Amino acid sequence: MQFWIIQGLNSLSLGGLLFLLSSGFSLIFGLMRLANLTHGAFFMLGTYFAAIAMRSYDGLNIWGNGARCRHRRRRDRRPVRAAGSGAAQNQPAWAGPRDARHVLHHFRCMPDAMGWRFHSGPNAAKPAGSDAAVRVCVSDLPPGAGRMRHHGGHRAVFSPGANAARSDDPRRCRRRADGSRGRHPRLEAIHHGFLSGRRNCRCRRRAGAAPSFQPIRDWTPTCFR
Amino acid sequence: MLPLALIVVILGGIGSLLGAFIGSFIIGLIYTFGTALFPELAYIILFLPMIFVIAFRPQGLFGRVGA
User: Fold this and answer.
1) How much is the average pLDDT of A153-157?
2) Is the pLDDT of residue B39 over 50?
3) How far is A53 from chain B (nearest CA, A)?
4) For testing the chain A interface, which of B17, B32, B33 should be mutated: the one with the most A CBs within 10 Å?
5) Most buried among A56, A79, A137, B35, by the most CB within 10 A?
6) In the prediction, which pLDDT does A106 show?
7) ipTM of this model?
8) Of the partner residues A18, A30, A35, the one whose CB lies closest to the CB of residue B27
């Protein structure tokens, strides 16, 4: 009995696959009177594209850069500890950034990944003097990168222009131009709208680092480079 | 996969979507059970319905006569 059930299910799935193939084949064959012998090759090409999309970052990340930023839980943003250290033994296996649950997050993050901004306000404004604000993820950065202002904890606004290098920038210098003592640079940044006041926002900007544009990740598949 | 699609199209009728639907499940059944039950004759009983359809009903199961 088990044999018949399993083989019946196998035949159903094979029949469905054959229907997908042969409906297109039959359409071209019937309309154009042309036996398209490359139909199987196109099928193979589609499977290759699907494989590229699945392998792109951490599985089905076909929407690009910010897809795994916004809605990740805080414990998912923990850095992966080195294997073998004492604390790492107690970490669950899914604590790393390459988590299968993030595939579900991509669907929630799709507007973020496409660069849409639904909100207006200080965080949505471009920094003064820059001609383009490029949103990147801090979690996508290489470990030593400290060259950006960011807000929202893990979203960032790059400013390729030279505006951030001025020494009277309130975000750079604790002492104001009139000689009075300024607040903490993070408070100034929050005041000027470059940084949101979220609790878990770690500012990675260092005082001496020159702001420069740095491409975060090359999303081109390896076979196309 | 391409010969199987060709068999399905010939079986169901050229240009017929319903024929492709019925024929694909017929071919799927025949191919799976033929491979499981008679492994030596799998390809013969896969191509037999196509031969019968070509011999006795050249327009296919759901094809038009003129097609």
Assistant:
1) 38
2) yes
3) 23
4) B32
5) A137
6) 44
7) 0.89
8) A18
Q: Which residues of B12-46 are buried (b: 16+ CB within 10 A; e: fewer)?
A: bbbbbbebbbbbbbbbbbbbbbbbeeeeeebeeeb
Cβ atoms within 10 Å, residue A123? 15
Residue of chain A whose Cα is closest to the Cα of B32: A11
Strand partners, A136: A156
Report angle CA A6, A9, A11 to the nearest 5 degrees. 110
Tokens 């607040």 belong to which residue? A183
pLDDT value, residue A154:
38
SS3 of residue A181 by DSSP: strand
Chain A neighbors of B24, CB-CB under 8 A: 15-16, 18-19, 21-22
CA distances from A46 to A43, A63, A94 (A): 5, 18, 31
Residue A191: the pLDDT is 61
Q: Which two tokens stand for residue B28?
A: 């799927």
- What is the pTM (predicted TM-score) of this model? 0.43
Identify the residue among A22, A28, A34, A44 best suited for mutation to test binding to B, counting B beta carbons within 10 A and taking the highest: A22
Interface residue A2 vs chain B (CB under 8 A): no
- Say which residue, B31 or B15, is predicted with more confidence: B31
Tell me the CA distances in angstroms from B42 to A68, A127, B32, one per residue in order. Answer: 49, 70, 9
